[in-house]
Give the backbone structure.
Amino acid sequence: MADSANVETAHRLSEPEDAGRQRGRWHEFVEIAEVLILAVVAVMTAWTGLQAAKWDGQQSLLYGEANRDRFAADAASTLAGQQLGADASLFTAWLQARAARNKDLQATYIRRFTPEYRDAFQAWLKTDPFLNPAAPPGPGYMPTYHNPNKDAAKRLNAQAADAFDEGTKARENAEKYVRDTVLFASVLFLIALGQRLKAARGRIAIGVVALGLLTFTVVSVLDLPRL
């Protein structure tokens, strides 16, 4: 009977030691997991912050290019309008000289046309405009007439539109990186909250939630374009 009592007493004394050792192992495992999560969060937070800053810079650069092209397009469009106005005035003067049968003055006005308008003028004459009612009203209405400055304005406006669209995409990318930075901060908050808990189950549960949020955010970051 004495031996049985001694065995039972020894068993009872060893139970708290075994339970404490088991709790210690779980505590150590949880702490290691938390440290790994914090390390990943620290690196990814710095990365997302860097990318957000780069995309903000890219947005500013692209918007600047769009504004530059807009100004250049406006200047080219204005010059094209001035050239067309001058050609139209010369064309009106040519019509008056033709009515006066002054061939020398007609030739002078034709020489003063811009090269593109002169080519359109020659094509317009071939339509027999003074007898053909279906002929265009003037050289400026000919399908073959193209003012290089007007074409440049159209091209620059298209470039500006493309740059502005790319700038908008850059801004959206920057906002997405900022969003992921906030999510990483939420992971830090969850880990800090879990470390305040004494109950192992509660701490582990919060750690699992933090790990899930971390995984989701990392996948989101990897899916975003990078600079």
